[in-house]
């Protein structure tokens, strides 16, 4: 069978060490940071746009967060909307003095971009990715301990750039949980489930990031072709799940021989797309793929994939996540925020981060904007029909094409999982 092979890491690309060499590469044409004055590789023009550059930075934070979460959950699905967590951290940095601000900015890769108006640019980023046609609901909030006197000099820029105001707890766990649940329901139009977990009575600073996405494909699936099919959990175990099918799907495709995975990309409405990473073998560990994920790598993929016609099957998916990412952030060199930070721009009282909560919902089904298009003039036609069956564990990335922002990322080991 003819296979389209794309060598995604050649020439200007720097290999799979990219997870250490991410948004941290120097500006194009700038002197080598070792002081030799030697020119460094030119930067992709896409990342010269301030909003795109910022999106790459916070997305690289998102890939870092995903890797930590995935390593903590080696045998279960992972679902994250890292942008909502990054937004909460970025907003919190407005209340931090220099030492603590630097800790947050390094985690978000802000120290590697030259932007004097980070928060103003973040406002533009949020406006782009949450535009109505994007079908993304994303919001973040800072919740503070009861009876805290907050400085107006913190509230004003927070509201200006992030469109939110801090919430002060009442001290009544039932009332506080009810209020937070109400806020989550309002932000996601009731699509993210209410939490039934009790509020801790020891909260100093709680960060809350919520997100929901259900967007139509650019080309809808025929629901009459959806049927129960085998999904291979491993070599020996299978489960029957609803699988959508399209025998003449148009997708963008490539085979990464280094990662030993087949990469497929399907467009959604609103300049969004989902990129799938499907290992060639069901027994293959996903870690190597995960370690390669960066904004730059995904942008390279987006540029290199070729349009093909394929026999496509994909499981219907409806996932949700509710829980803390506190421990994950502590492992990402943010421990000092939980120990002895300086948030004196928020209040005169010593406060510290105690909890970071994330709630997310994500689903796709047959819904689409139109019928099957004909292949474009630049599409490739393998000698034999190309098969792309997402019938075994895979990773997906939901990306905003306009900015390159990572909006959702998931590891699907069992499509039945919540």
List keywords for this structure.
single chain; 418 residues; alpha+beta; Antithrombin, Chain I, domain 2; Alpha-1-antitrypsin, domain 1; nine-stranded mixed β-sheet; five-stranded mixed β-sheet; 16 strands; globular; disordered N terminus
Secondary structure layout:
Elements (H helix, E strand, L loop, with lengths): L49 H23 L5 E3 L1 H11 L5 H10 L10 H12 L6 E9 L7 H11 L4 E2 L4 H15 L17 E9 L3 E3 L7 E6 L5 E19 L4 E8 L3 E8 L7 H6 L2 H10 L1 E10 L1 E8 L1 H9 L1 H4 L13 E12 L3 E3 L15 E4 L4 E7 L5 E7 L6
Parallel strand pairs: 2-3, 4-12, 5-13, 10-14
Antiparallel strand pairs: 1-16, 2-4, 6-7, 7-8, 7-10, 8-9, 9-15, 11-12, 15-16
Helix pairs in contact: 1-2, 1-4, 1-9
GO molecular function, one term: serine-type endopeptidase inhibitor activity
Protein name: Serpin family F member 1
Organism: Prolemur simus
């Amino acid at each position: 069978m003819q296979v389209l092979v794309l060598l995604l890491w050649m020439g200007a690309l720097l290999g799979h060490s990219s997870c250490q060499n991410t948004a941290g590469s120097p500006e194009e044409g700038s002197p080598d940071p070792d002081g030799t004055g030697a020119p460094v590789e030119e930067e992709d023009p896409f990342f010269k746009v301030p909003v795109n550059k910022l999106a790459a930075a916070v997305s690289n934070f998102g890939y870092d967060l995903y890797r930590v979460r995935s390593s903590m959950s080696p045998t279960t699905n992972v679902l994250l909307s890292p942008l909502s967590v990054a937004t909460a951290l970025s907003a919190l940095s407005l209340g931090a003095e220099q030492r603590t601000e630097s800790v947050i900015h390094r985690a978000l890769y802000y120290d590697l971009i030259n932007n004097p108006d980070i928060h103003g640019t973040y406002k533009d980023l949020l406006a782009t990715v949450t535009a109505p046609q994007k079908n993304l609901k994303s919001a973040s909030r800072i919740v503070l301990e009861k009876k805290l006197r907050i400085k107006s000099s913190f509230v004003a820029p927070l509201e200006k750039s992030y469109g939110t105001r801090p919430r002060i707890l009442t001290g009544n766990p039932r009332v506080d949980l009810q209020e937070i649940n109400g806020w989550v329901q309002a932000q996601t139009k009731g699509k993210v489930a209410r939490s039934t977990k009790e509020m801790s009575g020891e909260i100093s600073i709680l960060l809350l990031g919520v997100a929901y996405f259900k967007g139509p494909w650019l080309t809808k699936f025929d629901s009459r072709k959806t049927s129960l099919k085998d999904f291979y959990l491993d070599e020996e175990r299978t489960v029957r799940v609803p699988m959508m099918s399209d025998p003449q799907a148009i997708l963008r495709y490539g085979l990464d021989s280094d990662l030993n995975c087949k990469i497929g990309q399907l467009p959604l409405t609103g300049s969004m797309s989902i990129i799938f990473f499907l290992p060639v073998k069901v027994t293959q560990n996903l870690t190597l793929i995960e370690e390669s994920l960066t904004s730059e790598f995904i942008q390279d993929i987006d540029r290199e994939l070729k349009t093909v016609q394929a026999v496509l099957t994909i499981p219907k998916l409806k996932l949700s996540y509710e829980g803390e990412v506190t421990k994950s952030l502590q492992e990402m060199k943010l421990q000092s925020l939980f120990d002895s930070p300086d948030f004196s721009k928020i209040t005169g009282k010593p406060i510290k981060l105690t909890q970071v909560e994330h709630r997310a919902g994500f689903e796709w089904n047959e819904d689409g904007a139109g019928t099957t298009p004909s292949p474009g003039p630049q599409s490739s036609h393998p000698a034999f029909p190309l098969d792309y069956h997402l019938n075994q564990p895979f990773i997906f990335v939901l990306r905003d094409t306009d900015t390159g922002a990572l909006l959702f990322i998931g590891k699907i080991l069992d499509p039945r999982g919540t």
